[in-house]
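INTERNAL AUDIT FORM
Audit reference: QA-55
Scope: verify that the stored structure record matches its stored sequence.
Auditor: D.O.
Record contents follow.
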Amino acid sequence: MIRGLKRKKEKKSLEMRAISFLFSFAVIFLIFLLLVSNIRIHQRRSELKAQIEIKEQEMNELRLRADYLEGINLTEEDYLIEKMAREQLLLKKEGEEVVVFSFPEEVEEKEKEVISEFIWWNPLTWKIR
């Protein structure tokens, strides 16, 4: 009877050891997985922070460039508006005089007649039938 109790206790203690070993192994494995996951997350976070810094630098450069171009555009816009008003609407500033050149149409017609007279001298215009 004592032997039977000892054997039962030994069986139970052996079973308890196996269960505690498996449980310990599972806990250690879980801790290992969490550590690996934490390391990966830390690496990814540092990569993303570096990308954020790069994008912020690019954004600041673009803002500076946009401000610069906006300043240029305002001065160019004023200049272009004034130029268009002078050319198309024939407006002028005080103290300026507007001069308009017009070419006579007769000169253009005479040039066309002269060109048509000399076409027969050019062998490249001759047609062979």
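Auditor finding: record pair retrieved intact. The CA atoms of residues 105 and 111 lie 10 Å apart.
Action required: none
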